[in-house]
Every structure is written in structure tokens, then in C-alpha cells.
Amino acid sequence: MTQLTEQIRQQLVTDILEGRYVPGSAFPTELETAERFRVSRVTVRRAYGALEEAGIIVRRRRVGTVVNDRFAAATGPIRVLGAILPLNDSFSRDFLKTICAEASKQGVMTVLEPGGDSGEEQSRAALRLAAGGVRNIVVWGVDRKLDFGLFHRLRVLGVNQVFFDRILPGEFADYVGLDNRGALETLIDCAVKDGAADFIFLDAAGLDVDSQRERRESFIAVCRKRKLPHRILELPWAEVLHETGNYGCDEFFRTLPRQKTVALFGGNGQLAHVLTGRVPANCRFYTVDGGPAEITSYTQPMHKMAEACFAALDRQRKAGARWTARDYRLPGELHRPAR
Questions:
Q1: Does the domain made of 3-67 have the CATH classification 1.10.10.10?
Q2: For residues 22 and 17, what is the distance between their CA atoms, to the nearest angstrom?
Q3: What is the second-level CATH architecture of the domain 80-177+302-330?
Q4: Helix-strand-coil percent breakdown of the chain, rounded to 5?
Q5: Which residues belong to the signal peptide in this entry (predicted)?
Q6: Does the pLDDT value for residue 244 go beyond 70?
């Protein structure tokens, strides 16, 4: 393939990724593309041949050339892993170290795309990885502002994907995450053994991620099933993230009765971290994803999850066009402070 043919092929792939041509829609004719790029139809025909061979476009009788609308997979050996993970989050950095270690063990090179602090920026990072030829990616989504249409198109183009922890992707990618129901059941068991008489879930207002939502819903469901008194306290996530303000909860804690033990459940370690030392002495913390050493926490098994991510990518690679999305849930590890 000549350099000019490759440039045209790459631009057409970028057009599909950016949504100019969506899966199932008509693709421009060879003549239209030749006129657009001011090249010969022979050059365009070669570029179209490469796209067709890769399964990106298909020729259909009575319809013409269309963008493939069926899921595909990169079936070759995994040589490079694209990691879309923000660097300003300690949990994400821990997972990055773990996934890099697992990649090294498997002889795979890791390409990091931090992707910034928003789903929009992470989507652009995915586009850059795909345009650069990366065909296997792991995503730790910042929020649900991700361009899910883009990731759907990446799947159609044969990019294998695993989403980790925060965001449930749906049909276009596998998901590896914590068994959140099991996590909350374990933590609530601990609180009951510790003599808790009141159960409060610390929620992150403004944090739009599926893992936090699942943990809140699991907390409510378990408390209702066991007939435990419970309520939700929302903390502004922007203030929690930057450790600014009083989080609007000082008055709430002043109203709590002092004669009974209160269990505070954090959907993530940051929520417990910012409140440590600011709550009454009769309050005890129980968190998912770590926190200060002196509190009970239920952490994600990073090494097992990194292995699960690679296992999922390998299954996608082997299944090819027969692949269907799976949800991999792993039990965590309970850490109790010394009394």
C-alpha cells in the first residue's frame, strides 16, 4: 500500500470514528472519494479494498458500499494495550501500576492516554489510540459523559475494549468490576458486629458513575432486607474531590444522637478521607476502595482484576465476530483495623 493510499484509508477510518459515516449507512462511492481527495480511482479502490478486507466496509447488492454495522474484533496477538486512565486519581494510578505489571508479564507494551478529567476528553483519547493503530484498550471512565457512540463504532471497527470499575459500557465492551452487592453485605455485616444502631450511606452528589450508584442501591436493598434503620447523606463531589468547603454536613452530624454507634458507609475511599476527624466519636467508617488505615474497608483485588481485563481481551480476540459482551464481577478483600 502506497503512502497516499494509507493516508486516504486513515482519513476514511477517522471519518467513521467521528460519526461522519455511521454503522449501517451508505459509504461514498469510489468516484466521490476520488473527487474529494483529488486522486485517481485506482488509489481509492486500493484504500477501499483495505477497508473491506478489515471488515470496516461491506458491499451489498442493490445497496452499494455501506459501513459495517456488525461487531468485529481484532483477532491478532495482543502486542499493545491502550490504557485510558486519569492520573489525578490515586485509585486509578494504583490500577495503572497493576495493569502495566500484568502487561509486562504477558509481553505487552502499555500506551497511556490519561484523557483528562472528563468523559469527553477520554473519548478523544480513545480516538487518538485507535487512529494510532491500537486495537486493545482498557478504560477507567471518569463519568458518563463518554461518547458511547464512538466506542460503539470502535467495536464495529474491531477494537477490543474492556471497561473497568466505574462505568458500565453495555453491549460494545466487556466490563470488569467489583461485586458491589457482596461488598455492601460484607461491610454491613461488620457494622452489625460492631454494634451499629444507625446506618448512613455517604453519597457523592454530582458524581455520575455506575459503580457509586450500584453501591448506594445495594446499601438500601441490604438494609431494607435486614430491616436496619438507614438513610442517605449526599456530599458535593466537587468539594470532596478538591477537599474544599465543609461539605454541608456539619449540622447533620451535630444532630446525631451520641448514645449509639453510627455506621457511615462510603461508596469510595475519598468520601471517608475528607470526613475523618470531622465526625462525632460514636461514628465508625466502612468504605469501598480503601481509605485511612484506621477504618474498615473493602478493597478491589487489583491484580486479579488486571488479569481479568487481559482474559476478557483475549476472549474477544479469539471469539472474533462471534463475541458478545460479558460482565465480570470479582469479590474484594476485607481489611479490618486493629482494635
A1: yes
A2: 8
A3: 3-Layer(aba) Sandwich (3.40)
A4: 40, 20, 35
A5: none
A6: no
